[in-house]
Inverse folding.
């Protein structure tokens, strides 16, 4: 289908890092089933480095591809770098998404940030709250 | 990716039949005159046009004069509703009754009329998608000028009690329109016996060409012109007639009607085999009525997954299907039809529609059951919703 780029289809058909990390150091879940997409990210963090990342996604092709790409972009990276991940970077790495699917890349960014926030909270690490979305700010669902 | 194609999206459009294609060919470079021209080339075309009109009328049980050619089902729906609204307005009647599961060609036209001062009642349907004649009777007021109820639903396949609804309308002196786009060529239609005043159909849903349809309007029901210009279609629809498409439509409809009983019997068996196979997938549910159902329609919702990814992966396996999920429509809400039969958003996103044709084989049905089973299982395995359902953190909606 020409709806998506080859990159999106590749990550959709062969998603990287699908699964669960049982002893994750940070978990983030965003979206809701009512809107048709939920993403859950699991992080394993050693020192300051994201040593492993896994995801589970309920959603459309671009939601699955965005999750997969986002995990690839932060795996093995320092936390400080993962924090800088933007939805735009996810969409660009996928060679673009249709306009009405851009919220999928927003969800991927937010899921990772939420997992990092969870990691900070669990470990009592002080962090700059303004760097994190207050809630699900994508505005996709209206609730 | 797949080395085969199993086309199960016949409610979206069908492959043209050889009969229909052959019926069209002489009208491209042989009898290509304009039916409005006085010369012999034009008159030959005019004769063919008249003959096609008569053949289509026979299939619907009406007269040729009651048939107006349109660009398709949407235009026919627009024109039928606009016409009835205009007739009502002249008598000071500005109330229209319809249902929540109509096609957007009907719903959006009604929305527009609402903004122009009409009041619209959209009747609820039951959990199988059925509306009753009693509901219609109860909703009719002295102000009602039109009842429009689809013959059969395009998403869930439910067949509405058209004759009974028509009878109620006849009794109360209200015009009755039915969008028969999914029914024409698939279910028996007789506009007199079924008390229908206005009926829309579209050729490409019964193996005819795209871009052509027809509107039946009972004698005495004056149509409003949507497209102004020449005097074609007795001034009700301007524009040179698309004669090749009209000939194709006539041939396709005749062919479909001639083999209807046999086709319906075969498709119903295949449909029921598919329903039985998909019913074995846990936490899935059939949408629409089990028996009052189009012979070729199968519609399911599977909990814990989303429809678009299901379609893409089925396509990889060669199965062309359709879904009512929000993500496939480009809107935020899943199908209004699935919501109307009581599917909550979470479940409606995981919908799958498979619509069969005369060419569908038993082997294809069995392959499709296996493909759906595999893909649903695969997607559930990566779904956090499914994990929560399995662990009991979230409650199953479909038991």
């Amino acid at each position: 289908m020409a709806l998506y780029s080859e990159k999106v289809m590749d990550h959709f058909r062969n998603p990287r890092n699908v699964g669960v990390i049982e002893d994750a150091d940070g978990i983030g879940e965003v979206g809701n089933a009512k809107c048709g997409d939920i993403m859950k990210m699991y992080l394993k963090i050693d020192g300051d480095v994201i040593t492993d990342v896994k995801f589970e996604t309920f959603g459309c092709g671009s939601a699955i591809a965005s999750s997969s790409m986002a995990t690839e972009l932060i795996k093995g990276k320092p936390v400080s770098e993962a924090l800088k991940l933007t939805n735009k970077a996810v969409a660009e790495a996928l060679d673009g998404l249709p306009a009405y699917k851009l919220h999928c890349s927003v969800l991927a960014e937010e899921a990772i940030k939420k997992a990092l926030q969870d990691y900070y909270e669990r470990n009592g690490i002080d962090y700059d709250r303004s760097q994190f979305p207050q809630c699900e700010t994508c505005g996709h669902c209206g609730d | 990716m797949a080395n085969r194609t199993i086309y199960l999206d016949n409610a979206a459009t069908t492959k043209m039949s050889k009969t229909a294609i052959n019926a069209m060919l002489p009208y491209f470079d042989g009898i290509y005159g304009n039916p409005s021209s006085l010369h012999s080339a034009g008159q030959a075309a005019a004769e063919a046009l008249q003959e096609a009109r008569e053949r289509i009328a026979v299939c619907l049980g009406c007269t040729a004069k009651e048939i107006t050619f349109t660009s398709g089902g949407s235009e026919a729906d627009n024109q039928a509703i606009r016409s009835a609204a205009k007739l009502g307005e002249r008598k000071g009647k500005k109330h229209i009754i319809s249902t929540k599961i109509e096609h957007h060609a009907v719903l959006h036209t009604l929305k527009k009329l609402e903004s122009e001062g009409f009041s619209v009642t959209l009747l609820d349907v039951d959990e199988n998608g059925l509306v009753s004649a009693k509901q219609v009777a109860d909703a009719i007021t002295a102000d009602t000028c039109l009842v429009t109820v689809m013959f059969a639903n395009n998403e869930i396949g439910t067949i509405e009690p058209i004759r009974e609804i028509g009878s109620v309308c006849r009794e109360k002196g209200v015009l009755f329109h039915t969008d028969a786009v999914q029914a024409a060529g698939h279910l028996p239609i007789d506009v007199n016996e079924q008390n229908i005043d206005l009926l829309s159909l579209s050729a490409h849903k019964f193996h005819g060409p795209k871009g052509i349809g027809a509107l039946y309007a009972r004698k005495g029901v004056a149509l409003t012109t949507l497209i102004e210009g020449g005097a074609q279609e007795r001034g009700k629809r301007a524009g040179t007639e698309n004669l090749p498409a009209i000939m194709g439509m006539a041939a396709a409809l005749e062919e479909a009607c001639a083999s209807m009983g046999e086709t319906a019997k075969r498709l119903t068996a295949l449909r029921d085999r598919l329903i039985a196979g998909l019913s074995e997938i846990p936490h899935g549910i059939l949408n629409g009525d089990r028996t009052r159902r189009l012979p070729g329609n199968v519609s399911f919702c599977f909990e814990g997954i989303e429809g678009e990814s299901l379609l893409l992966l089925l396509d990889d396996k060669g199965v062309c299907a359709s879904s009512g999920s929000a993500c496939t429509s480009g809107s935020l809400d899943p199908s209004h039809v699935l919501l109307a039969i009581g599917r909550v958003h979470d479940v409606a996103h995981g919908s799958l529609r498979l619509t069969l044709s005369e060419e569908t084989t038993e082997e294809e049905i069995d392959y499709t059951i296996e493909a759906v089973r595999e893909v649903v299982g695969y997607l559930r395995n990566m779904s956090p919703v499914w994990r929560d359902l399995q662990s009991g953190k979230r409650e199953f909606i479909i038991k």
Chain B has a mean pLDDT of 96.
